[in-house]
Amino acid sequence: MSKQSLLIYSPEFHTYQFGPEHPFHPLRLDVTVDLIRQMGIVTPDQIVLPEMCSRHDLLPVHAEGFIDAIEQASRLKAPTSLLKTYGLDTDDTPPFPGMDEATRLVVGATMQGAKLIMEGKADHVFQIAGGLHHAHRNRASGFCVFNDAAVAITYLQRKYGIRVLYIDTDAHHGDGVQSIFYDDPMVLTISIHETGRYLFPGTGNAEERGRFDGYGFSINVPLEPYTEDDSFIDLYERSVEPLVKAFQPDFIITQNGCDAHYLDPLTHLALTTRTYEAIPRLAHRLAHSYCQGRWLALGGGGYDHWRVVPRAWTLLWAEMNDQAVPDEIPSSWLQRWQTLSPVSLPTRMRDGDGEFPPIPRRAIIEDKNRVTLQRVMRDAVELIESRSGI
């Protein structure tokens, strides 16, 4: 199906780092790219070095005062009052030397992915360091400084005037992207996440649907804690496909956080690798059905760096390339990383049936999720169709 898929990666992504003990650690990128290489599903000419964006590229999305504050924080010269104003006074998103350049590298790489696709140099691009979906117009939040997805979407709108679909399957609600486009009918945001009743950022209710001209173009499917594969995949497929058909996008961006996995230490969902094969499979098909193949995949959350992130994102990359992935993980990868890993590395790409303990109250959880989907979808398709002007 694909003429070319590209992977944007460089060890320079390590500059985006809040500290050695912070959960959002760039080592996971290296471990993942090495697994992709060891599996033999990438060629050297498919790996593209990232390009840094300019301050000017940020201005259509981020407030100038916020950009100034990041520049000061990057030199560790920002006063406490300024840090507090712009969300940089927390353990989640503290300032670090070179923060401005590191973040602009991530944003630039996401813009670069969009350009490569629109210029016909690739059908699909995986920007592995992207997906900083909690950043707001004037505030850093939740490990995210500048919002790379929002900057890329705005670039696509301004240069090409196209309709952009943004699908976010991170366990955490994609609040920053939603808020930036909350009144924009040219961007459809779909976020499927753990309910904010128990998890940061506490938003993403089914009733959050957009405002003004953008009413109906924000879709949220909040899931019950301990949701498993069957329920997630069911809700994902039953919601996304009809919404995409109604919206008729020209370009798809997916945020592929894999922190909803059973082993992730920061969330309460219970997915396995089966879901992380199903998510890109549908996105891939929809990209070719509606968008001439235009699909930009971003990374995102994922805090089990050793057992989950490498496998989930390798499966994503394989789908982007129509590649079948053997189940056995290469011994060369295991030997390289086991000495650094604090846990035993998996020897199989896919979780086995019955590998994790059964979840109590499964039927109740699935039923609550079905009720949520009914509430979300009750008039969502009709609303999008009536307001899209297609």
TrEMBL record:
Pathway(s) the chain acts in: Ketone degradation; acetoin degradation
Q: Does the keyword Membrane apply?
A: no
- Pfam families noted in UniProt: Hist_deacetyl
Q: Which domain of life is it from?
A: Bacteria
Keywords on record: Acetoin catabolism
Xref: Gene3D superfamilies: Histone deacetylase domain
Alphabetical list of InterPro entries matching this protein: AcuC, HDACs, His_deacetylse_dom, His_deacetylse_dom_sf, Ureohydrolase_dom_sf
Locate the Histone deacetylase domain: which residues? 22-319
Keyword check for Repressor, yes or no.
Answer: no
Q: What's this protein's family per the entry?
A: Belongs to the histone deacetylase family.
Name the UniProt record assigns to this protein = Acetoin utilization protein AcuC
Q: Which organism is it from?
A: Heliobacterium chlorum
Q: Taxonomic lineage of this organism?
A: Bacteria, Bacillati, Bacillota, Clostridia, Eubacteriales
